[in-house]
Amino acid sequence: MKTYKPSGWAAKGFVSLAILVALPLLISPAYAQVKGIATLKDFTGEVLIKNNGKWGTAYVKDVTLYTGDKVVSRQGTAYVVFHDGSELNIEPNSNIKIIERDVKKGFIFKKTVKERRIRVLLGKTRYKEEFSKKRETRFEAPTAVAALRGTDISFGVDPEGNAYGVVIDGTWFTVGEVLAGEAPDLPREIADRTPAQRAALVATVAAKAAAEAAGAAVDAMKEAVTDEDKVKAEQQKAQAALAAAEAASQTAKESKNEADALVDNADDAVAKEAKVASDAAVTALEAAAASIEAAKNAVTVTTDLINVVVSAIDQDSQTTVDAAIKQATKVADLAKKESELVEALKDVVDGKTIGEDVTEQEREVDELKREVDELEKEVDEGQGDLTTVIEDEDVTVTTTVPTTTAATTTAATTTEVTTTEVTTTEVTTTEVPVAETETTETETTETETTETTETTTTTEASPSAELGNYVSFVTR
Q: What's the per-residue H, E or C state across the chain?
């Protein structure tokens, strides 16, 4: 038998995000824009998409693409049509980002020009457009930039970052070396081991796990009837916050990987932008690390509160039950709010890679920080109130739910930060959502415990059944 002696929230190891006050708050408004710039008209095989700043959601033909979105093909192709009718064909094993914005050009008489940037980190593309003085198109590779002065171009990048190009109709101006000819075809085995593809795949897996955890939390809240159900639902909410923070971390790592690939670009403007984005990613990753630890502790605390509720029910102390459920709600809400802050900070990286203004989003982050501070105070006060109730009611708490089990049920990726590539130390075999739908059963062995859990996952998966195993292999 174990007597429960609450010792304050800080003693639980909850990591405050107050340190973020001193960090740069540069959040991109790119995804606040509702106007799309292109449409994914068609695709074949396995295609992953980062849409509106998020990986891992289900995609269908004619999905709207926004500035900063990515299309990552594996054993498949993609066909993108821009709002002005320009066409982008993406070959298999490619990693492409599309960026578009209005810019003012001219020394005396300013005119608005639509600047279109197609960033190729890997693979091959074919692009066609009608000539227009109101649009400027350029292709960006890790080492070079090609400004299009024509209407038909083939452009690609090999695994070493070398750029290749063929001007089929028109001319172009290049900064840095662009090798004549088409980029070599890449076997999937080689493409999948490049930092760009690896990072996209892991980010997608983490996003899928976060979506599933969020769904489980919603279901638990809806189905909660008894007091024990209610407190367990709050634990599910904390687990969903943990998965969300881990997904945001993986997305920030993927964007940092992109930025780091461009920091030595021959175009000084591209290199400078990449350096800013890389620095912003560090901020987002620091916040994610703090939020992940906080969410883990929230899972631990809500597990303790399940024990409090179960014990209080056995001892007919409804006052203690109510106080424990109330505290569990505060703890889970705080973890959720901190994951929202990380999500906002994650957008820093994406915004900085496309040079967007961030003023409006700074205010949003400030508001989230204030909400986190308020919730932290409420959690501290609630801990004291619960302690008093338990002592007044003379409730003895027994351990019925092992803390270690609850702390490791999240099917997401915990990570260590590197400057050159994404390295994960714990991943699941969840299928990445791509073009089609199938249901798979996978066995997931958590690295922190010896316990093995079986999960049934329904995803928009490709015919490639070994994808989950691939992610486990390349991220060891």
A: CCCCCCCCCHHHCCCCCHHHHHCCCCCCCHHHCCCCCEEEEEEECCEEEEECCECCCCCCCCEEECCCCEEEECCCEEEEEECCCCEEEECCCEEEEEEEEEEEECCCCCEEEEEEEEEEEEEEEEEECCCCCCEEEEEECCCCEEEEEEEEEEEEECCCCCEEEEEEEEEEEEECCEEECCCCCCCHHHHCCCHHHHHHHHHHHHHHHHHHHHHHHHHHHHHCCCHHHHHHHHHHHHHHHHHHHHHHHHHHHHHHHHHHHHCCCCCHHHHHHHHHHHHHHHHHHHHHHHHHHHHHHHHHHHHHHHHHHHHHHHCCCHHHHHHHHHHHHHHHHHHHHHHHHHHHHHHHHHHHHCCCCCHHHHHHHHHHHHHHHHHHHHHHHHHHHHHHHHHHHCCCCCCCCCHHHHHCCCCCCEEECCCCCCEEEECCCCCCCCCCCEEEEEEEECCCCCCEEEEEEEECCCCCCCHHHHHHHHCC
Check whether residue 182 and residue 278 sit in a common domain.
no
Q: Which of 187, 210, 235 is the last residue of a domain?
A: 187
Q: Could you read off the pLDDT of 136-184 as tens digits, one per residue? A: 999 999 999 999 987 899 999 999 999 999 999 999 999 999 999 999 9
Co-location of 160 and 284 in the same domain: no
Whether residue 3 lies inside any domain: the answer is no
Same domain (yes/no): 312, 165: no
Last residue of a domain, one of 134, 154, 187: 187
Tell whether 276 is covered by a domain.
yes
> Residue 80 belongs to what domain range?
75-187
Are residues 230 and 324 part of one domain?
A: yes
**pLDDT for position 20:** 32
